[in-house]
Amino acid sequence: MLNFTVLFFGKHNDYYSLNFLKILKKNFRKVKVIWYVKKKVKITKKFDYIFSFRSHFILNKTIIAKAKIYAINFHPGPPKYRGIGCVNFALLNNEKNYGATVHLINEKIDNGKIIKVDQFKIFDNYNVTSLLKRTYITQLNQLKFIIRFMKLNNGDLDYLIDNNRFIWSEKLYTRKQLDKLYEINNRVILGKYCSWLYRGEGCQYNGGPKEQEDASSFTVSVGANRGLWSSNQTYSIGQYVYLEHNRMTVNDQKLKVYYVSVVNNNKNQQPENNPSYWQKDGCAKSITACKKRFGNATLPFGGFPGTDGFNYG
């Protein structure tokens, strides 16, 4: 337990902000939280540290001065991408890598001294939602690292700051730019992501299971198709069945949703939402996933613009 006080700015009712707060409370003597709910805040008391994560508060000079030691921001992007909505621009620019940056807060946006940067690969199946999720998880791990370093150095981070090799880009992405991007197309262009319903009319795929939705693979045995699932049948590892979707149809027939057995002697276990016995067939919605199913033939890839990816970060 670190014998310091913390003021935390986070996003209200946000899963990752709540986890961030949980980590802080576990490791610091006292933590006060201010949730971002679009209201002005007034802070009269000083704290040893200020942490900001997923909060859209722009901390002014008066608030920054309330940190006795450091005011620290966790920015959901690498130094190359400053400002707001950075994941959208990174995907549009076909970046191969992305990341997250921990830095000191000054009066400018994403401009303070950099403490730590972590980078990772952008996979073909990433869209805005999945890239943000990966980024937030990276940021939680960054917080854990920072805390471990503080415990070894009595709360001091100067070594990390002095040995940082990254610098901020001069370019700053603004809300106006992101809104303009959305206006121009009336939707965000995310060509890497297929918008077809998997196994639906646009997709056209009707073969055996290939992978899970997150692109992780499973084993399918030869001659494994057992047809419609039945509670009276016993299934082995690698055999697959399907259930019929009650609301969705393909060519006037109910959409088939496939599941692969992951255990032997699998009997009377409903496939849906039962991962201990069944893995659900899915599609990562990427060109790579499409090629797994159609090979080198003309692909029915539905990677045209779609509105579901738009996000301010």
What is this structure's SSE topology?
Blueprint: E1 2-11, H1 15-27, E2 28-36, E3 47-53, H2 61-64, E4 67-75, E5 82-83, H3 86-92, E6 97-104, E7 114-121, H4 128-152, H5 158-162, E8 172-173, H6 175-185, E9 225-228, E10 234-235, E11 240-250, E12 253-261, E13 266-267, E14 278-280, H7 287-294
Parallel strand pairs: 1-2, 1-3, 3-4, 5-8, 9-11
Antiparallel strand pairs: 4-6, 6-7, 10-13, 11-12, 12-14
Helix pairs in contact: 1-4
Provide structural commentary.
This protein has 313 residues and is of the alpha/beta class. The chain folds into 2 domains: 2-185, Rossmann fold (3-Layer(aba) Sandwich); 225-284, Ribbon (Seminal Fluid Protein  PDC-109 (Domain B)). It has helices at 15-27, 61-64, 86-92, 128-152, 158-162, 175-185, 287-294, and strands at 2-11, 28-36, 47-53, 67-75, 82-83, 97-104, 114-121, 172-173, 225-228, 234-235, 240-250, 253-261, 266-267, 278-280. The strands form 4 sheets. Strands 2-1-3-4-6-7 form a 6-stranded mixed beta sheet. A 4-stranded mixed beta sheet has the order 9-11-12-14, with no helix packed on it. Helix 1 links the parallel strand 1 and strand 2 (28-36). The longest helix has 25 residues, at 128-152. The protein is elongated. It starts with a strand and ends in a 19-residue tail after the last helix.
Mean pLDDT score, rounded? 85
Head-to-tail CA distance between termini: 31 Å
| Total number of distinct structural domains | 2
What CATH calls the topology of the largest domain is: Rossmann fold
